[in-house]
Every structure is written in structure tokens, then in C-alpha cells.
Amino acid sequence: MSSDPLLRQVLSGVDGSDERLNEIVSSLITHLHAFVSEVRPTEREWLAGLDFLTETGQRWCGPHRNEFILLSDMLGLTTAVDDVNHVGAAGMTPSSVQGPFHSPAPVRELGDWIATGPERERGTPAVVHGRVLGTDGTPVPGALVDVWQADDTGLYDSQDEQQDLGNLRALLTTGHDGGYWFRTIRPSSYPVPVDGTAGRLLKAIGRHPMRPAHVHVQVSAPGYRPLTTHVFLAGDPYLGSDAAYAVKPELVREPVRREAPDERWGMETPFEELEFDLRLVREEER
Ligand code: BEZ
Ligand code: FE
Hints:
- The chain has helices spanning 5-12, 19-39, 43-60, 67-74, 77-85, 119-122, 197-204, and strands at 61-62, 65-66, 125-134, 144-149, 169-173, 179-185, 190-191, 210-211, 214-220, 227-233, 252-253, 256-258, 271-275, 278-280.
- By secondary structure, it is of the alpha+beta class.
- It folds into two domains: 5-74, no CATH class; 85-285, Protocatechuate 3,4-Dioxygenase, subunit A, CATH 2.60.130.
- The strands form four sheets. Strands 3, 6, 12, 13 and 14 form a five-stranded mixed beta sheet that branches. Strands 5-4-9-10-11 form a five-stranded mixed beta sheet, with no helix packed on it.
- A hairpin with a 2-residue loop joins strand 1 (61-62) and strand 2 (65-66).
- The longest helix is centred in the N-terminal third of the chain and has 21 residues, at 19-39.
- It is globular.
- The model has no long low-confidence stretch (mean pLDDT 96).
- Residues 70, 73, 97, 99-101, 192, 211, 244 line the site of benzoic acid.
């Protein structure tokens, strides 16, 4: 129990019927009181903090945007929550944050081009492929692989009027060998949205808003725990300072430059090949 009478009094009022909620709220109150004792904010500073949170909710949250999620990402909290909930079983692909740009993807066939707009002419052609496997290496046929990425200028379809909705997204089903593949363009690194309160905070504390180039992947298959993760491109200058703190070394892959056309992948010009296997944990595995 705390020796601070005010804190003791506030904590003694936490007595709901949900024990877990009591635990969460008590801990939050304790940490916030410790913050006030340590930082000793002026009343003006405290109100500025409350105004910041009010603006975040009132102006920057709605059906198509949630600035609180972005703030959670930018402060490393989403990754911290991910870390405590997805303690990796040996051999599984680590998870990482979903981010705000996931939306329902068009169903596509293995090997389809997912870059269907002008970016296909501008960008570096790429083949992304891999297999969905159990942690013991068993192939997982029929797994759903949902992928989404930004274009060569760092924009997602929902941020860019020149892209049709569904561009650079796909919902694929793995083949009998657990394999998946698609043709696309190399994604670019990009800044997270900076026009709202999260951007203002980043600027105020002197942090850049960039995320290293990546493709998002979400996999699900009966009998396995679903996985949300990214594959990052080796060599990106922002790998060591991702604004969303989502990079894990096991998720970084080196794209291999192929100079010759390749019939196997249906590529008629030089391209980059990126291989990324996804290892899933069985539901019952710990
Ligand atoms: C993204 O990769 O889409 C993303 C993740 C966290 C914050 C902003 C964007
Ligand atoms: Fe992203």
C-alpha cells in the first residue's frame, strides 16, 4: 500500500466487481500519481496535456482514422503490448504491429500483379514469395495470406486519389505446398501521418516520422494462431529508427536483384526477388 494519503484514498475507491479491471485501473492511477510526483507539472502544463488528448479524440479520430492508435504506435506502446501477448514459441515468425492502413483486400490468385495503377510503370518490379509452415516445418496449405503495402512514393491506396481502393493489397490462399507468391513493386519507406496530434508530438520531441520500407502480412489457418507481421527490406536507412518501433531482426530480408527476365515468375524485365517464409504456431502450442 502507498504511503501517500491522497493516492491511498483514491485507490481505496477502486472496488468494482471486475477484479482484472480493478487491477488495471489501480495500476494506472498509481503510475499517474508517480508521474505527477516526479514531473511536478504546472497547472498550465497539465491543462495543455488534457487539451492535447481532447483534440486527439475530437479532431483526429473517426471512422477512417484513430490518432490514439497512432500515438500508441509512436510511443512504442503497441509494440510493448504485442511483446507481452505474443511470446514467441521456438521457431515461429515474430509478430509486429498492424498499423492503421489495413482494410479488406481483394481476393487474388497466386502470382497475380497487385500493383495495378501507374506505380507499376514507375516502380521497381518485384516478386514476393514464401511458404506458410508450422514451427516444425510442416507446410500449411489453404492458409489465408493478407498482404498490403505502400507504393514507390510511400502512399497507401486510402491516402492517394491516383490509386484505386484495393491497389497493392491481396488476399491469397496458399497452395498444396503452403506456398504463396505475388508480383508487385518495391515499397518505399514513408512518413506516418503527421498532420494530427501525433505528428505535432513527434516534431516537438525531435523525432522523425519515417517507417522503413515494408510489406504487411497477416496469416490465418485453421488450427494455428493467426499472425500479423511485416517483412522489412534490408538496407533501408530507417531500420534502426522505425517511428513505430516494429522492426525485429528476424523480419528483415535482403531483396535479390535479378537482371534477366524469368519465365518461372512471369517477369519480363529485371526485378527484385524477396523471399519470406511465415512460421505459425499451432493453437495448442505454447
Ligand atoms: C504502417 O505501417 O502502416 C503504420 C504502422 C504504425 C503507424 C503508422 C503506420
Ligand atoms: Fe505500413
